[in-house]
Structures are given as C-alpha cells and as structure tokens.
Amino acid sequence: MLTLLPAPITTMTKDHMKATLACYREHSVDENFPHFREALAQLDKHSDVAEWFECEKARDEDFSGALNEIEIPEGLEESILRFANREESDGVESGRVIRPALAMWKRTAWMSAAALIIVAASLVKYFAFPPPVVFDRTEFSHVDAFREDMGYFASQRFVLDHTTKDLSNAKMWLEERGHPVYAKTPDAIVNYRGMGCKSFQWGDHHVSLVCFEKDNKELVHLFVIEREGLDGSIHEAEDLSRMLVKHERETGGWYDDEHVYVLVGSEPGVEIGEILREI
Question: How far apart are CA 20 and CA 9, in angstroms?
C-alpha cells in the first residue's frame, strides 16, 4: 500500500512529524525530500518524538534482520510458476496458443507478487501482533508463582505498549493508567536506558512491566505487582533477593509495603545479580 506524505508546512505538529518519519528510510534518497528534512530538523525541539523515532528505527532494524534470516524454501519459485501455468502446461493445442504469452507472464508475475505479500503480511503479524501470553495455572496468589510466571512471560514474544528511553516517563505512563509501579525509580537502575513499558493481567492482578537496557546492551525486565492478594505468601516464599533461574532466565526481586518487584533477564545468560546486589 502506498503511503501518501502530507504537504510540507512551516511548523509540524508532533502527530505530523510522526506520520512523516514513519515513512522515512535512513541512509536513502529520503534524505533529499523537504518533508523528511523538516521533520528531522525539529526532533531537537521535541524529545518525546525523538525517543519515539529512535525506538521506531530499532524496530525496523530488528524486522529487517528477521527478514534477512528467512530461508526461502527450496523449490518455492518452481512451485509458484507451476501453479500459475498449470492451465498452460501443454502450451499449444490443435495448432493454436491457448493463452497469449503476455497474459501468462502477467499471471506469473502476479502470483509471485502475491506470494511475497502473503509472506510479508505473515511476518508483520508474527512480530507486531503476537498472541497474548497465557499462564497455565488456576492459582494466582503466591509470590513464587508470580516469579515463575514472569520468567515464562519473558521467554515469550510480546510488544511493548509504550516505548521510551526515560524510565520516569515509563513510570508516569503506567501511573496515568492506574497500573502498579515503583514509587521512584530504583537507584540501581535509574541511570540505565529505558526501552518502554507494558501492562497485562496475571489472574485478577494487574502487572506492570518496565524494560531497560544495561550498559552492555542486554535487556532486563522489571515486573511490578501490588502486594494485595499476595501478602499471606510473601514470608513463606523463596527469598526474592536470591537469584534463581526460571525458564532459563535469571530472576530475583524485592518488595516494599505496597508492591512486589521481580527482575528477569530477557534472554538466557543475561545476568541480573549485580543489579540485585545494589537494590
């Protein structure tokens, strides 16, 4: 689908900037167009749009990388061409051509394009619209179960609800929607680069997720849940401050008067011990 760019104006609104930059291709001829130059020039004036743009570029890079890793099945082209030409397999019948060569070429090209569109649409759905994570349990009141399931959640595909580099901005976004969150950003992670946040349900509990990037670019997830409904199990649970591996990911956490917090490495091998020791 062709995306039409809005006509250039002197001062862009934030929404106009996002609509324009959503079409921008870095290191391409797009840099020569006034629409893009104007939007890029105004990023310094709008830090929130600049953060959004950086996240968009990171997503595009991830998606591009995923496309490059796809192996085309052996014989796919031959299968498409065979399907497109199945009615013309003989080519000539009783001395006359069944279909003009041009029509055959158009159909073959259309089928090839259709196959590419289907693959692209499937990839977009896979990465941008993953199904919700489902927890396979009936009891949602024990801290150990919460830690276990947050390790599981981190092992699944999901998309952030709000992207931002600023952990304070993530906190504000969650608070505005009534989701549980830390009273203030923990000192041990306050200087890390944020990635964004998300909210979801764990049984009847609202859970907030804040993602941030360590100095070595590894991602760590911080899950927050209210203590209400968990209080009876906190002192009976495994020591949250002790690092335990759940679903091949390091997990650990702490709690205060109102919330329980669980840190989980985004991938196997991502270490969270140093962060836990500083909290």
Answer: 12
* Alpha carbons within 13 A on the beta-carbon side of 151: 20
Place of tokens 């690092």: 243
Nearest to 111 by CA among 88, 89, 78: 78
Q: For the segment 201-239, what is each residue's pLDDT rounded down to a tens digit?
A: 999 999 999 999 999 999 999 999 999 888 777 777 778
Q: Which two tokens stand for residue 107?
A: 């159909």
Low-confidence ranges of the chain (pLDDT < 50): 1-9, 87-88, 90-98, 118, 121-126
Residue with tokens 């003009």: 100
CA proximity to 55, closest of 208, 211, 172, 224: 211
Which residues, in sequence order, are CB contacts of 230 under 8 Å at separation 6+? Answer: 141, 142, 143, 146, 260
Q: Which two tokens stand for residue 185?
A: 């950003």
How many whole angstroms from its chain centre is CA 129? 9
What is the C-alpha separation between 256 and 252, in angstroms, rounded?
A: 14
Contact 226/180 with Cβ under 8 angstroms? yes
pLDDT digits (tens, 9 = 90+) for 48-57: 788 888 877 7
The span from the CA of 254 to the CA of 134, in Å, is 25
